[in-house]
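CHAIN AND CONFORMATION:

***
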Amino acid sequence: DRLTSEALKLVEASRDRPFLLNLCYHTVHTPIEAKAEIVERYRRKLSPGLRHRNPTYAAMVHSLDENVGRILDKLDQLGLASRTLVIFTSDNGSLRGAHGLTGKWLAYEESMRVPLIVRDPRLPAGLRGVRREEMALNIDLAPTMLRLAGVPVPPEMQGRDLSPLLSGTAVKWREDWFYEHTYTPEDDRPPIARSEAVRTPRWKYIRYIDTTPRFEQLFDLLNDPLERQNLADRPEHKQILADLRARWQQIRRESD
């Protein structure tokens, strides 16, 4: 609430000039705490058999939603909504029990996918509310914002400008991308398995880089979106496994 209140001051002060507001909420994150009245509201919504579940997490999401709404309402009140680009996203997902795991450190969809909502008031009505299936990455945000603001994109930026997707333009897009999580705590916390992956629109290849013997996972996201069937040892998928393994090796070499 305090962060939003400060942000609203900036919006008020900038009503007659261009502004950039980068608003980074810590929610939803530990410590898991929220307003008591919102927590109680969600506690009442849970059936008796589910009341052992922590309603505070849901209350944190609710509070975040309310505060984003405060920003959007202020843009409306000041007449700025029609000339303000809004991008909503997050830094990471959360497993929250998927695959019997918690945290954000492994290459499963629940961990690596994040929301990305772009509201550009310049778009015609027919392009609003459109969902695109192309693979967007966080490195795409900077070149996209520069392009939409009419600023040249430096050639050394690795990301891609998303504005053609927003405008409905047919464009050749990325066919795969490389994932890595090689951080592991140096304190007394349990180690995190280091992993790398290649993700295509249909397939995902995961490689745990410290295991002996080698441990790999291969998922068909079209037919198994919840990633329950590891196909890495299936003979019928031998070629796709080899192709993605070779792509993983290629990207690693190019990144050195």
Notes: The longest strand covers residues 203-208. The helical segments are 2-13, 36-45, 55-77, 109-112, 141-148, 163-166, 238-255. The mean pLDDT is 92.
